Here is the input.
Amino acid sequence: MQAFQQYVSCPHLRELVVEATLALARLDAERLEELALSCRALNRDLAGLSEAESAERNRQAREASGQMAVFGRVLDATRANLEVMDRLSERRGRREYTSSRAAISAGPWALAEKNHGHD
Amino acid sequence: MGTISSAFHLISGALNADQSALSIIANNVANANTPGYTEETPNWRENDPVSINGVTYGAGVSQDGASSVRDRVLTQRLNQQQQMAAASSSRLAALNAIQALFTPDSGSDAARAGDIGSDITSFFNSFATLEANPTNNALRQQVLSTATTLAGDISNAAASLNQQRAALDQEAAGIIGQVNALSAAIAKLNGQIQSISPNGDAGVLEDQRQLDLSKLSQLIGINQITTENNGLSITTTSGQTLVSENSNYPITTGLVNGLTHFFIGTADVTSQLTSGGGALGGYLTARDQDIPQAMDSLDQLAFGISTQVNAMNNAGTGYDGTQGTGTDASGTVGNGTVPLYIFREPAQVAGSAALMSVAMTDPDKIAAAGFGQGAGSNGNAVNLAGLLNGPLFRPLATSNFSLTQHLNSAAASVTSKIQVYDASGKNYTATLTFTNQGGNTWDYAISLNDPAVSATNATGQLQFDANGNLVAPAANVNGIAFSGFSNGAGPMTLTWGLYDAAGKGLITQTSAPSAQLAQSQDGSGLSNNRSPVNFFSNFVTMLGARVAEVQTENTAENASVTQLQNQNNALSAVNLNNEAVAMQQLERSYQAASKVFAILNTIMASALNLGVQTSVS
Here is the structure.
């Protein structure tokens, strides 16, 4: 019960997703790293929820699903931007770091990103 | 002599090169504020070596022009982001206008759509008030007054939505002139660039081409394809050619069902442009998706309230003793000759909101009493007031049906029946008559129990093999259409599913007795499980959620454009450290965001599939 109380006293999932999306748009790495830690703690607190608590979590998840799709799109767009910049750096011989990014994808949240041309 | 001459040449060449470079730098400074201008750097070329007394010396450098500091990979990516941001910006503007329409108390005198929720409550509460004193003429007038307010606000909202749609249509049509002008300019620049600078950067001409491409990207979604000799082809994101070398292919417009459609050649590319991005994509998404969805919700609301209130009032008795023509809950049919409708009775959902109005002028026709009750009774008023909390009627026309039917090969004919629904939710019996033609062949004919309807493609032939399996038609039958319904409902177009998912025929023929083993259809006259107020509230909530989603997306896309523009600017900066820091910030943000996304994805997947345990630590 204590875990659930912490959960419901936290910002709702939707707000969390929106904040992460905006932080990514701003390239606010510090805030994103804080959010990653918060999400990790939140995920731990969710273990062993009662039926009622699970129903509340389900409601919040449904409420946040649209924003999650947007977050996925921004994440995909950022990865595409990174790839472009990587290729650009290589071509200009200015690459000064090594990329080790994980292969995260928007997956089921991804809205169809239809507008990609030849990049 | 040769020695001195060579040495002098070497020195003077270097001086000339320096002077040219200075000119290029001066040009950069002079054009610092020119939109689209790209910084140029001098092209240094090593001269041929000089041989003096058998010893070869380097011949210094000379400057043979300038190259602009640009990267097409980056600018194309920037253009893509710009077209996505432009699409969400124009769509967001349209959605905000729709949302403003449904904000309570914010409407103009012409349209108070925001008050629809309270209008609904007031209207049904007027019946509750009438219950207490059914003979009171003022209370009867109040019912008609609140009905007029409700119908007026709904129809005005529909009119406003139609006006917004027309405005978006004009905006979209207006963009095409700019698109065609830009594609013509780019085609002309292509020709100039290919002629003047086929093997290198074309400097100012390339700047102009990039600027035009950037403008074009903000208008519509495009792909860029580099061709030989520094040429460029441009297509829409769905592949239609806009520019090829020095030729451009203009987009033309024409009206289809009252809306502007877009053509390249004879191909209608409207739907492709809608999903393609750019401001045009945003306008078309709002015109063809967002506003029709909002209108559909309003239509459902208007249809449900009108038909349910009319049906209930028509199943009662007015203060003047006149009965309606309907049937009450006990099955009693009224003896009236004219329906007692409060609202104009809609024939189908589509268009109901725009046409919603109060048809009743005599308050004595409000049927507060039930059949067989005295004029001062209130039995039916109770029922009418109860509609406030009852589910809103939501018809769904049948579009697919199937029968699992066995035909006796010895029978001359077989009939089989199935219930189907028109667009108003009225149900009909569809009769399928199978006539044995011998040779494993049966004719079929489909009819409805409404003598007014005319049918199209409702007859045909079934062919079975020697084992009684259906072999023809080889696929489901599409386009079986009925129109001209006596209640004014729109056409019903059906697909007859002759085969199951495994491809097995659902109609069979053997010597066994004929029988209908199963049937299915997808229409209904059922409710949507929401009361009128909840339905409207849900519509407004969903609209708000969509606005918020597009707003977030637009904010993120614009931020992404800004990032890319900064990266593009950094391309010509000499401070490599800044560029590296920017790249590291981009990388670090992506990594952190990926972690957030992965954890949230796990949490939400777990929540949406209750019982699945989370695993990310």
Residues 1-22, 57-63, 106-111, 610-617 of chain B have pLDDT under 50 and may be disordered.
